Amino acid sequence: QKEVEQDPGPLSVPEGAIVSLNCTYSNSAFQYFMWYRQYSRKGPELLMYTYSSGNKEDGRFTAQVDKSSKYISLFIRDSQPSDSATYLCAMSARDTGNQFYFGTGTSLTVIP
Amino acid sequence: KAGVTQTPRYLIKTRGQQVTLSCSPISGHRSVSWYQQTPGQGLQFLFEYFSETQRNKGNFPGRFSGRQFSNSRSEMNVSTLELGDSALYLCASSLLGLPNEKLLFGSGTQLSVL
Lengths: 112, 114
Known about the structure:
The complex is a heterodimer. Chain A is 0% helix and 54% strand. By secondary structure, chain A is an all-beta fold. In chain A, the strands form two sheets. In chain A, strands 2, 4, 5, 9, 10 and 11 form a six-stranded mixed β-sheet that branches. Chain A is globular. The termini of chain A are far apart. Chain B is an all-beta fold. In chain B, 0% of the residues lie in helices and 53% in strands. Chain B is built from no helices and eleven strands. Chains A and B meet through strand 4, strand 5, strand 9 and strand 10 of A and strand 4, strand 5 and strand 10 of B.
């Protein structure tokens, strides 16, 4: 079983829709949770960073962490064609040192 | 502030050859990590360097190696290339390489092995 599981999609939504992206994980020691956006042939770009459980909002993006269920989500409101990319979740823990664990990514297309 | 810079952007090699990839971290960042990204496996951790020392290593064969210089720039080397080494190789930097720090990536080097 992989440490982090993420539905690869692809996900296709109309412009303006609310998008929900999710990851589950198995290591209960994970404390630091990140979402990255990756455009084709580019490196991942950090979108959201969350520590432990709870919600964090930044503009149209909201990250949620539910440690009891080992489940994290990223919500995108009022989705735009420019949001079309692959979204990667990542996480780390104190006892994993500097090694981050990534999901395989969800491919999102926002149709104008 | 300049971001993480990786060179070259693209490489084409043949089986059996070796390759060296370069990474310049964000100014002031002392930790450099390397990841391999493939469509099936996603991002997999190769190794991390801090102050010229390898602190952590992923589950890759010894053909994959790296080093870090005193200015924090890093190189990774893959010897005796195999077809399965075709991937996007990503370098990321952070200030001290702590798990609670934000990991910032370069654009990657796309390696194709023929």
